[in-house]
Amino acid sequence: EITVTSDSSASWTVPNAPTPNLRLRLRQLDAQNRTYTLNDQSQTAVSRITFRSDGNRLLVQHAINGELVEWDVATRQILWRAMPPDVGQIQPVFLAYVDQSLAVTLYNARGRGYAALFRIGQSAPLWSGQILGQNIAGGALDSARRTLAVIGSLAPAVELFQIEQSAINPTGAVPVPVLATSVAITSRTAFVALRDSRIQLYRLPEWSLDGEFSFPYLPHVTLLHAMPDGKRLAIGCSVSQTSVVQGFSAPAFVLDLASGQIIRSDRRAASTPVAVTSSTDSRYLVFGYRGQPQSPLWDLATNMVLGQASTHQGVLADVQFSPDQRYVASSSGTAPLELVLRTFLFPETTVSAALTIGSFALALDTLRFAPVYAYARTDTTFVGRLCNTGTVPLPLSGHWIEGEPTFQLVQPLAADTL
After folding, report:
1. Rounded distance between C-alpha atoms, residue 312 and residue 201, angstroms
2. What's the mean pLDDT in 349-368?
3. Any residues with CB less than 8 A from the CB of 168 and at least 6 apart, and which?
4. What is the mean pLDDT of the chain?
């Protein structure tokens, strides 16, 4: 046994045993799943959930009144509450931390799209207002550049907004060929799903078209999710036409971005996805479906469903992994209204991918010379070789030279050679 950890991290001194095929066996010692119900005494359902980037805070938004509530994950205590302006019954669409002190929300009310910017700890928003004259269909945040990408339910364009310290300002629109249905953003690329089952790629920050994936056989794409590894894209589709074998199906896919190929698919759901999240290591993918109380845990490494990431008595509203992968938060949209924080357990035993322990080896010359050189009136240069021929970088510097103080290192020949 190497180590035991309670916070998913540990230090290990690598042994001097070179090997190209080291594997670590990980075993879950505490196999008891813990579920915590968070009750803020609200009479409306939690519709949107997000974690702060460090995983220590959980921010939720209620439907109808749009109230925001921030929780401390460790103590499960409420830290902050705030309300957007009263514009009628609110339907939250998107919620995110801009940074550790700012949060932004997109929501619909009376057939129009609104946004609000909050400073954590303050009850009134820094800025709020209508940003679209139609319902918002989806949104995404480029947190590095503090840019909001918003798609409307009727307009063939992606509207862009810049988040300032106390305002949200429009900066332009990116036209798309047909209606957009979903948008997702990574540090370098934005993905926009179109109603004709194409997925367009845009290079950031200029939002220039950088290619597209075309899948004519896909049903209507309703959700896109960029996996944290930056290599894959999760795609959730609406219910397709009936099949003699499977009946109604709302397929989910995983796209490999490098090859443009679908590498995983699941067709067991019978209703449209309403939420999607993935673990930080990109191994586990979770879709939540309309009218369903559970959210299946999809292990992409084995392409198997390993039970449920969360479950409710009412139908699922939203589900999110915490960035540290220790929790799954989920909420129900119908009675009994619940907001649940559940510990996430890895499979009881798992084996890591192959690791390599490198080695270092020295090739050197031994120089021998008569004592007379130590008393010569002029400097004499001796040339010798000392080279690391192993696989581990080894800094070579003056301390490799042993002798009287009158001997000095003249010049290293290369980074790993003297």
Report:
1. 36
2. 79
3. 104, 115, 117, 127, 129, 131, 148, 161, 162
4. 86
